[in-house]
Predict the structure.
Amino acid sequence: MNNQLFRHVLLPAFAPVLFLVVATTLVDVLGCLTRGLLAVAIALLSILAGLGAAILGARGRMKGSPDANWWAASAVILAVPAVLLLLLA
């Protein structure tokens, strides 16, 4: 249970936190272009990882695996940076 909480909730939560850190960083620190490219790259990687987690969750749901809900939770958490990118853009 503890290992699953780390793998499926805390580790994917790193992406939204990193996105928010980059998005709230002052322009003087990173520059406007660099900050924007980093935010888009984090959101894109998060989307790709979220799609992978959703596929694993759907595959596990079809097989009746108890870990399918954990993968679904990971997919939802990994979707947060993309939603934030749309809201902040």
Observations:
- The helical segments are 2-10, 14-24, 27-30, 32-63, 68-88.
